[in-house]
Design brief:
The protein is mostly helical. The chain contains 4 helices and no strands.
Amino acid sequence: MKNNNSIRTGIYIDRNLLARCDENISRTNASSRSEFISDAIEMYLSWLNSKETSKILTPALESVIGGKIATTENHIARVLFKQSVEIAMMMHVVAGAFQIDEDNLDRLRGMCVDEVSRLGGKFKFEDAVRIQKR
């Protein structure tokens, strides 16, 4: 582990902590206690620096994600509005063309809720044609 930048220094360390370090040297690529402790210090410093970085990145990341979510929400809202207008137009055409009483309308709504639930929301025009031909 010794390199040109290494210096010899003394530190105070708890005996139990030092024993735990010695027990775990074999679990790493360290070849000595000094290398193990040096690696541990480097890892801890990296972890500390990553915490500082996350304090800076987190608000920026939140801002970007929040902006993307807002854009997506607006897009979905516009699409749903356009689709609702088309459905309302179709409902008016159907209501004007057929005289449907309240009882039949209630039964139809119940049947449609059951059918759409059974199909997991994947109801197609072909499904309606098949049902109406029965």
